[in-house]
Amino acid sequence: MTATSAAAAARATVYGYPRQGHHRELKKAVEGYWKGRVGADALRETAADLRRANWRQLADAGIHEVPTGDFSTYDHVLDTSVMVGAVPDRHRAAVEADALDGYFAMARGNQEAAPLEMTKWFDTNYHYLVPELGPGTVFSANSTKQTAELSEAVTLGHTARPVLVGPVTYLLLAKPAPGVAPDFEPLTLLDRLLPVYAEVLADLRAAGAEWVQLDEPALVQDRTTAELNAAARAYRELGALTDRPRLLVASYFDRLGPALPVLAKAPVDGLALDFTGPAAANLDDLAAAGGLPGKRLVAGVVDGRNVWINDLAASLSTLGTLLGLADRVDVAASCSLLHVPLDTAAERDIDPRIARWLAFARQKTAEVATLARGIARGTGAIAAELAANRADLASRATSALTRDPAVRARAGAVTDADVHRSAPYAERAPAQRARLRLPALPTTTIGSFPQTTELRTARADLRAGRIDTAGYEQRIAAEIQDVVSFQEKTGIDVLVHGEPERNDMVQYFAEQLTGYLATQHGWVQSYGTRYVRPPILAGDISRPEPMTVRWTTYAQSLTDRPVKGMLTGPVTMLAWSFVRDDQPLADTARQVALALRDEVSDLEAAGTPVIQVDEPALRETLPLRTADRPAYLAWATEAFRLTTVGVRPDTQIHTHMCYAEFGDILPAIDDLDADVISLEAARSHMGVARELADAHYPREVGPGVYDIHSPRVPGPAETAALLRTALAALPAERLWVNPDCGLKTRGWPEVRASLDHLVAAAREVRSTL
Questions:
Q1: Which among 92, 175, 253, 445 is most buried, taking Cβ atoms within 10 Å?
Q2: How would you classify the pairing of strands 610-614 and 270-274?
Q3: Does the predicted TM-score (pTM) go above 0.85?
Q4: What is the pLDDT of residues 19-46, one digit of tens each?
Q5: Residue 521 a catalytic site member
Q6: 611: left (phi over 0), alpha (psi -120 to 50) or beta
Q7: CA 636 to CA 41: how far, in whole Å?
Q8: What gap in Å lies between CA 29 and CA 620, rounded to an integer?
Q9: Tell me, what DSSP letter sits at residue 526?
Q10: Residue 557 burial by Cβ neighbours in a 10 Å radius (0-12, 13-18, 19+)
Q11: Which among 179, 165, 146, 193 has a CA at the least distance from the CA of 252?
Q12: Which residues contact 242 (CB under 8 A, 6 or more apart)?
């Protein structure tokens, strides 16, 4: 096919769409099911309604081929485990008794069995459930969900393309099951898994699939020759199948690099590639590989991870080059639109000048459709859209709303002295111990306590004018009193105020910093039924006034025990926001760090002896390619130190991280120079404690002994056993006892029981030292 005919054939598509619905109907239905208020049939009907609404919206926007199978009631990787029969032994009986309850037991655990481990989906803030595999794993095909959703879409008249996690990525994301040797490599199961994928593909073909998309984002990471050979073998075998739909292999988030020629040469029918951000290098790499003669190329030219409008002219230029490299070129977003909010039209409070610069999922589908129309019919067919887009891009580039000369001057004046503490840890530690006077194995929590219905009602009442600010603050003060009293009675050593005034650990601060923009309805799925509203970094950042000092000092006035000040660190403020794409991330991080540094200084001046600056996203934001990591870690750790190092030696600085692979960043954790770090460890069975010991980490550590993302309450003996595992790796004088993460998503009955058990376990183990 010539470039002209390839252009004329261009279609619009996407890889996935937000699942929650305009009013988070899926969250409400799933949580209602867990509480017994919603039946299984009602939950399934809600899910079906949302799928139908998504397909209808996509089709109405001009999307020619809609995705199926991307919709999930919890997690698409967990759906893949069900599809291939990779159910852990401890959950098998529950799944066989009731497939839906067993599915949620794998996701959340129950009193009989712990859930699957959860970690971040590449460098996003979406969490997936980690498959557990071993030499004895037996795969079996179960394509019920995939074929049923395809049939739904086809029956409604849509051209549909099922989307599956590819076999290579699935195995590379997996971990050895409990009891399996830690050096077991799940990829060795590839030959056992491929026949199951072959069966699923045959089922989908029988159900009407013309194309099936197999997502292989793991191939954008650095891969060994053996891993690339495994990918080549996988697609050689799947491509050789006779009873299959046409295969579209997709990858995103970064450049494919050495994996691109592997996939280009495979006997598959098309590739879907990302051409945004660092993945823009795929363009030159594709040309160097000889293009995709005789194959379909789906070009991801609209950024599926950020909220800024597309540069339509630049994307058309990229698409024009790609037209000569493939038999057919279609237009798409760079990845699933799962990672952005649903619709800017719901945002009534955003400055109209800024709203013109934003594109959520619905607007991105319109951009994709516009670009497809432009290459199919010529730019004259989209002249009005191009003119409006040029005006909006120019408006943002020249707007005074995005630049503050004072902020930029302060950031430019930072020196080396501003990012190093005045005393080394060896001198700080004795001073802090003398000030805090804590027992061995001190207990604490990560920061937040349950966000009760009463608290959410109070915030809603304040927004609606049903109560005034004074009435709202009385409710907050009463909640802090209760939280402090509970911690004292339970026996917690270092207290927190519970964060009742905070809607979210990033949004709360964003709403008080200049340069940030908060949304009212910009919900994005983080995991399961947990949705967040990432704020938008629209301009330069500064802190007009203290943000946390009032409630922290109030809590301290209620107790003689130390109370931690709680802040969110600069890297996490970026990672869990939609960041500026018009300046380097390092520049934005420095601005945020200086604003937070002012808050740290005010907390210390108010007498706060312990200040925790959370950085759970430090690992999450790590570039996918090893070569890009040193530069990132240099500015990221500097930003943390710029935030924290201005305090006295006897002020103890904590940080917290959760749900990530920490082994990749242990030197960077050391470079933070925090006095205490708390980390997720319960689901990974204290693996991080051993990693820190092997790395000779020199400071204090709180590996979590309670998995807060599960409703399961571990008993004192189980908690003590985890603590003893940590003690086998780390000395008691450097060990803290705490949950994995904040407690805001849990209910008070679970929290009371779990913290009682945590304190009891600490006391028991402490008595044996």
A1: 445
A2: unpaired
A3: yes
A4: 999 999 999 999 999 999 999 999 999 9
A5: no
A6: beta
A7: 47
A8: 29
A9: E
A10: exposed
A11: 165
A12: none
